[in-house]
Amino acid sequence: MTNELADATSPYLRQHAGNPVHWRQWGDAPFAEARERDVPVLLSIGYSSCHWCHVMAHESFEDPAVAQVMNENFVCIKVDREERPDLDAVYMNATVALTGQGGWPMTCFLTPDDAAPFYAGTYYPPAPRGGMPGFVQLLTAISDTWATRRDDVRTAAASVVEHLQAAAQVLPDGTRPVDAALLDDAVAAVLEDEDTVHGAFGGAPKFPPSALMEGLLRHHERTGAAQALHAVRRAADAMARGGIHDQLAGGFARYSVDPAWVVPHFEKMLYDNALLLRVYAHLARRTASAAAGRVAVQCAEFLLRDLRTENGGFASALDADTDGVEGATYVWTPDELAAAVGDDDGAWAAKLLGVTESGTFDAGASVLQLRDDPDDAARWAGVREALLRARDGRPQPGRDDKVVTAWNGMAILALVEAWMWRANEVPGIDGVEADPVASAGDSAEDAWLTAAEDCARLLLGTHKVDGRLRRSSLGGRVGEADAVLEDYAYLASGLLALHCATGAQEWLTEAQDLIDTAVDLFVDSESPGSWFDTAADAETLVHRPRDPVDGATPSGASAITDALLTASALADAGSAAGYRTAAEASINRAGVLLERAPRSAGNWLAVAEAAEHGPLQVAIAHAPGDGALVRLARRLAPGGAVVVGGPRDSTPLLADRPLLRDQATAYVCRHFVCDRPSTSEAELRGLLESSLRGPALDRDAAAHRADAGVDRMLFPPPGTDPGQTFI
Description:
Layout: H1 11-15, H2 28-37, E1 41-46, H3 51-61, H4 64-73, E2 75-80, H5 85-99, E3 106-110, E4 117-121, H6 135-148, H7 150-167, H8 180-192, H9 210-223, H10 226-241, E5 255-256, E6 264-265, E7 268-269, H11 270-287, H12 290-307, E8 317-318, E9 321-322, E10 325-326, H13 334-341, H14 343-353, H15 377-392, E11 399-400, E12 403-404, H16 405-422, H17 445-463, E13 464-465, E14 468-469, E15 472-474, E16 477-478, H18 485-502, H19 505-522, H20 556-570, H21 573-589, H22 591-596, H23 602-613, E17 616-621, H24 628-636, E18 642-646, E19 665-670, E20 673-674, H25 681-691, H26 699-708
Parallel strand pairs: 1-2, 17-18
Antiparallel strand pairs: 1-3, 3-4, 5-6, 7-8, 8-11, 9-10, 12-15, 13-14, 15-16, 17-19, 19-20
């Protein structure tokens, strides 16, 4: 056999095409070979921007002597976790069950007849080190155990599979309904865990809590809770000023190795930056913070400049390493600063950016931070440009050009929402702060919307095959791996956002098609509100994975619930009711997470807050060129709301909603109960601002008022105490 990875659609697999290991791709053939040879399968899972994956490759997989042991005693399979998240989920759970921890590279040993894991770990050094066995030592022990203790191996494998199947059961019922009181308690529990010194939650390693921040923002919008907003602002400010944020080019690294956000793990992931762009844009829109707005603009520019592919998609990641050295592109010494900008500016920049002789990352090398605003904005703009130009002249990290459906859906959603904020912002009217260090690209937000549309067309034209989605593509060539639940969910959410932004019916139609397909393929028909992560007709693995817990990215279950809730506010009445019922069942199923582990339910919190808030629907009928009310609504509506504008009957939300007195007319509805139509900006502003401060409506009372034809505002008036109840 020879290495078979050269023609893979994964850059990570192609990185291993030159290894002397006889790597195979996942499929029936390598398992058939393993059965014929009567040897175990060695499964190695990683991804292209993973630092320790590169280390193990250099130390072991490129070594002919190690490769010989692997080839003689195992059939070796290499998997890109980003291309096959289903396999990654199954075998990561096994690794955690066997060792108590997980990570990448992941190394699993499987039985050849049923792919059951019987031993697993992560990185192994070539020789014993730090209490870890050497990799060849491990390979020899596994091979000997397979040959001499086969019954023990099969017993261990059966035990692991039994554990995995038990762990994949549906969530137990919570003891409380998901209502305003539960959401208040969930937020209170989250805030008790806040790191008020360094921002965000927990200790090192510290990951950006994007979904949780979005949930807290929506909670603040619904309740007026100041502490929730303060927590978001502290986290946003701390991350933006720390080394995890690229102070020169924008964008964020995957996580910080310390609690103060100083030293990042340097890989930059598309999903992190899409999720963070959405949060910073939302924060800027809600608070008029120039600092949050600047970070959002730079993050959007980073996506378009550094991750956009030639065919209009967005690449998965930038490597942590440059020429095998982690962070080499990004760190600086005082002398390097001086060489780039001169002695005076170099000394000034070193003080501003925390670059010291001793270094913050390695001996003498520092990660750039921006702990304080520059005292000379114009000087900083010039220095930043010069440093970025000098850094661009260094060797650059590799880029994984694989286009992943879900993560590109996140990028579409984030770019559209950022466009809705930036393109509709009116300085001097909405309290927008002046920004003396704004990016030079601030006027280019229309390119964000164009990029989102281009990406959507690429995904629908390339990744949608015979009505079903595929997980990824490379260079326009779609891969064979089927999409998982998050792919359908996030692409649908991105298309729904495009529908709101453009009014184009095609995006709503395509989104509904994806949602309907997801319901058919992924819902657990025996447990309403529960979802599998793989399709009903997907490849049979040792168990069918499902994980409703939100992690570094939101779970597929919470993401599809978000799409269902949004679609219920946009679709025609016939479809909307079914979407709403499915969304509510999913939210109720996740109530136990919000009740017992709210920090692991950030996206669930965001979705549940939107549901509790209505979701708010704003439909604005207007003549061509008359979009003032639409722009105002986009500036003021809370997260999770839908705002659609256009001619009457142009979309389902505008059906039978005429212009009054030939003027643009806004229809504001909450819990599908509508207020009086409004034709003035002042009145619409009052309605929307009231919705941001008031308590949740009593839905039964609201329905009674609507049935009785009571002509009264359904929201408390501006300036009133949000603790009061208004009937």
